[in-house]
Design a protein that fits this description.
The complex is a heterodimer of chains A (273) and B (311). Chain A is of the alpha/beta class and 273 residues long. Chain A contains eleven helices and five strands; from the N terminus they run αααβαααβαβααβαβα. In chain B, α1 packs parallel to α8, α4 runs parallel beside α6 and α9 packs across α13. Classes of the chains: A alpha/beta (273), B alpha/beta (311).
Chain lengths: 273, 311
């Protein structure tokens, strides 16, 4: 793993996120920024997905169940060459192929159209079961938010993952501790998630969702266990821009000139130019 | 075209549909069947017995059922999903929209226990809004076969249709129309021509309409019967044909916002004035047997005759 390369990519993705939101007038900054290292690791280290095999029916698949972080995925996509910067900057404009919630019919790198929470895990399970039946060795990855775990349908899916022993499905929770109205623990706590999921029968791996080494260890652990795995990645909502961190006001927002300048300065301070 | 009225033969739409699916699956290994703990109730247990590796039961989890089917479709399978209409159209609705209709996937929902065919179970199990709700979703067609033989034809004739489908079937036995109906999506079946008016119906109400038509003949009224099995792409030609008589009655085992509204919309758009009445179940149905409830809820032959005599 080239740590410097990944950190550089993550920095570029963060800058893109902030630039796009400034340009478009609004975006899910908090949720997108918390998932940057996870998405960067997935697309540059973990997934067997690249420009040449986007339409392959046997490649790995990634489902962004917390679909409102679509901006982060789109920015990673630009870094991977799945779409151009020009396309990215049409974000949220009428008829754009890039918007808050990505549409799988608009870009082949988008494996599922999400937006309504609580859907991704079940769809991912369907793909995982399908791959097993077809004898395809690739894996399915699904990323959820911690608040999303309030949705009952997520637990319908998680039960089924265990019951069907879908070991080719790796579930990731971007646990930034916040939802729209405030902290998850204040609105509707998901409790001791690790214990809950462990009791279900999952191999639960914890990691710092902003530390590439930690993330790497978690994914390696997820691939070597005999049980279906869940990676709970502790993240910071709005990570990288100090005034956005852990601040629910930055769940969905635009940026004034002043805020944009400040954000860019902070990103440079935290991650380099 | 005459219509033979045989009031005593019955058959199970679910059995006929599932048996047809088993035959299709013998030649198409992409077909996979899913259910949410209602394999026996929906008859897909038969499919499991023949193809145990192509059968998935997710337990009592209707939302997950649809999501899993969606995932399977996305990796190349052709899923048939069996669950009760009431829960498909309400509990799992967000999933049918987001994971079936929006991505336009080749998934057929076998929505059983339609109408008040599980009358004894009460309002939570009655599917009266399903046709209205599902017809309003994008990319999906609602098909309500008139009997078991047509249900079988629906399965066979849609085998190459690779878009969302909602096929509403009843629990238990339905009357068989004596003459087997063909099935072509969007093309209504004219069972009988009429001079004095037409009854447009779907599902169980088709047989009721046929019986009503016979009774009306004895009273000197010649009413035609048309089985309008597909929505929302309604067969406009059959409505024009019916409208020539100046009298149309629609009958359905569900809200009149389903078939009734669709017919009314066509008439209004075409600027055709007819004497028009919609029969349906717009409130909460009491409990009872299916046969009793068709009568009690005013979508049976007696009500049709009463309305026709009044129009």
């Amino acid at each position: 793993m080239d740590l410097l390369f990944l950190k550089e990519k993550a920095k570029d993705v963060r800058n893109l996120i902030v630039d796009v939101v400034k340009n478009s007038g609004g975006g899910h900054l908090g949720s997108s920024l918390s998932s940057v290292e996870l998405l960067t690791y997935l697309y540059f280290e973990e997934l067997n997905i690249n420009c040449d095999n986007l339409k392959s029916p046997t490649r790995d698949k990634f489902l962004l169940s917390k679909g409102h972080a679509g901006l982060a995925l789109a920015c990673v996509g630009v870094e991977k060459g799945f779409l151009t910067k020009e396309e990215l900057f049409t974000f949220n404009k009428q008829n754009s192929t890039v918007s808050i919630h990505l549409d799988s019919k608009k870009h082949p790198f988008v494996d599922v159209s999400t937006g309504s929470l609580g859907h991704g895990e079940g769809v991912a399970l369907g793909m995982a079961l399908g791959y097993k039946k077809l004898g395809v060795n690739s894996k399915i990855y699904c990323m959820l938010g911690d608040g999303e775990l309030n949705e009952g349908s997520v637990f319908e899916a998680l039960s089924a993952v265990i019951n069907f022993n879908a070991t080719n499905l790796i579930t990731i929770v971007d646990d930034n501790g916040f939802m729209l109205d405030g902290k998850t623990e204040d609105i509707m706590s998901v409790g001791a998630l690790d214990k809950r999921l462990s009791a279900f029968g999952f191999e639960v791996l914890m990691c710092d969702g902003h530390d590439f080494e930690d993330i790497k260890n978690a994914f390696n652990g997820a691939k070597t266990t005999k049980k279906p795995a869940v990676i709970i990645a502790k993240t910071v909502k709005g990570k990288g821009v100090d005034f956005m961190e852990n601040n629910p006001n930055w769940h969905y927002s635009g940026l004034t000139e002043k805020e944009y300048t400040s954000a860019k300065t902070l990103l440079a301070k935290n991650y380099g130019e | 075209m005459s219509c033979n009225f045989n009031d005593n033969k019955k058959a199970s739409a679910c059995v006929f549909a599932v048996e047809a699916l088993i035959n299709l699956a013998k030649k198409d290994d992409k077909i996979i069947v899913l259910t949410a703990d209602v394999a026996h109730s929906t008859e897909v247990i038969r499919f499991k017995e023949v193809f145990p590796d192509r059968f998935i039961n997710v337990g009592i989890a209707e939302q997950n059922l649809i999501a899993v089917a969606s995932g399977l479709a996305r990796v190349g399978f052709k899923p048939y999903v069996a669950l009760f209409s009431s829960f498909a159209s309400k509990r799992a609705l967000d999933f049918i929209f987001a994971d079936v209709c929006y991505p336009d996937l080749p998934i057929t929902i076998l929505a059983t226990h339609g109408g008040t065919s599980f009358g004894e179970a009460g309002p939570t199990h009655h599917a009266l809004s399903d046709i209205t709700i599902i017809k309003s979703l994008p990319n999906i067609k609602v098909i309500v076969p008139a009997d078991a033989k047509q249900a079988e034809r629906v399965i066979i004739n849609t085998k190459d249709y690779n878009h969302p489908l909602y096929v509403r079937l009843n629990r238990g036995l339905d009357y068989l129309l004596e003459k087997e109906s063909e099935f072509e999506m969007g093309k209504a079946n004219v069972l009988k021509d009429g001079k004095d008016g037409y009854i447009l119906a779907n599902g169980s109400c088709v047989h009721e309409s046929v019986m009503a038509s016979k009774a009306l003949l004895e009273s000197g009224l010649d009413y035609g019967v048309i089985n309008v099995h597909t929505l929302p792409d309604i067969d406009v030609d059959c409505i024009k044909k019916a409208a020539k008589t100046g009298k149309i009655i629609t009958v359905e085992e569900g809200r009149t916002y389903g078939l009734g509204s669709s017919v009314a919309t066509v008439l209004a758009k075409m600027g055709i004035a007819v004497s028009f009445e919609m029969l349906g179940i717009d409130g909460i149905s009491p409990i009872g047997s299916h046969e009793e409830l068709i009568k009690t809820n005013g979508v049976g032959r007696d009500k049709i005759v009463e309305v026709a005599k009044r129009l």
